[in-house]
Amino acid sequence: MSKIFQIAFGLMLMSANCFAAATSSVIQQMSFGKILQTGEFTVITLYTNSEFTDIQNATVLSNGHVGKVRYSVPDGETATINLNPPPMITTEGNGCTINWVNIVPSFDGSLNNFQGTKDVNITAVIIINGTCANGTYSQTIPLNDELNTNMPVSITIGEGAGTIVGIKQIAPMNFGELISPNTNSTVTLDYNGNRTPNGISFVSSKSAANGEFQVEGAAGTRINVTFPDSVDMGRGMTVNNFNADTGNAFMLNAEQQRMRVGATLNVPAKIPAGEYSGSYTVTISY
Predict the structure, then answer these.
(1) pLDDT, tens digit, for every residue of 38-69?
(2) Were 190 and a residue from 71, 104, 172, 262 both cysteine, which residue would form a disulfide, CB within 3.0 to 4.6 Å?
(3) Nearest to 279 by CA among 173, 170, 167
């Protein structure tokens, strides 16, 4: 016995958008301009009118602008463009990590079945963790459209024009009055003015004081501090292990910033009584 199956074939034809007919071109790269960081966590929002908003820990030295992409369709044809940029793109900088987030395309009308040309603005928010070394940092943001369009974006980190940095002493360092020890001893003076003895006794703590300086310059300027390895006080007594509450590298948080300094005094056994003094050089670079 045979069984006969009847199979019907159908075909439905529908109109479709031809993406191959559309073209894209980047007519303006996105830029966050040039900024001066004034803190280790910097946030800047680039708005659709190319203005910066919600600026945190930064001084704008030159303005940026939105990115622009132009989509074009030949006469008599239509196309639909779907844009889906990634939520975040990360750039590893020198001393920092830069995250480009909230990447948003904006345009007039619709990209659905459009004709002619359509310009699309691309905006974003930049978040910088850490303190970037001076220079220009760039990245490419894929817009994830059917044409594989990529938007270049950049930011320049730099110092303010005419930055001048200076330093002056506010108070000298003083280890106070000590009793000559029977063995080699040390006194550690921290940058808060507190002394810690090792094998030596104090006559009085009232005269002890940490050193203090004032560093002056544009807020946000990165400062490097260098202390001498050792200073001779005479009769074999030396001072070393200089340290500051700012650390050896820091960013000015104001035009004038105090820097407190401590060190270690190395006292030889049975050093003769007397008043000893010396000087140390603090070098700053920026």
Answers:
(1) 888 999 999 988 889 889 988 888 889 999 99
(2) 262
(3) 173
pLDDT at position 91 over 50: yes
Q: Which residue in this structure is represented by tokens 């507190």?
A: 194
CA dist 119 and 67 (Å) reads 10
- The token pair that represents 38 in the structure block: 């004034």
Burial group, residue 229, by CB count within 10 angstroms (0-12, 13-18, 19+): exposed
Q: Which residues of 50-81 are buried (b: 16+ CB within 10 A; e: fewer)?
A: bebeeeebbeeeeebbbbbbebebeeeebbeb
pLDDT at 240: 97
Q: What is the dihedral of CA 270, 275, 276, 278, to 10 degrees?
A: 170
* Confidence (pLDDT) at 2: 40
pTM of the model: 0.57
The pair of three-digit structure tokens given for residue 247, joined into one six-digit string: 């650390």
- Joined together, the tokens standing for residue 103 give 């990447």
Residue 12 — very low, low, confident or very high, per pLDDT cuts 50/70/90?
Answer: very low
Which 8-state DSSP code applies to residue 40? S
The tokens 């191959």 sit on which residue?
20
Contact assessment for residue 52 and residue 60, using Cβ atoms and an 8 Å cutoff: yes
Q: pLDDT band at residue 192, thresholds of 50, 70 and 90?
A: very high
Least Cα distance to 186 among 204, 202, 206 occurs for 202
Q: CA-CA distance, 244 to 253, in Å (whole number)?
A: 16
H-helix or E-strand spanning residue 121: strand 117-130
CA distance 181 to 273: 10
Give just the sign of the alpha carbon dihedral 44, 126, 94, 31: negative
Number of other residues whose CB lies within 10 A of the CB of residue 198: 14
CB of 59 closer than 8 Å to CB of 33? no
Average pLDDT over residues 192-215: 90
In terms of DSSP H, where are the helices of 90-233? none
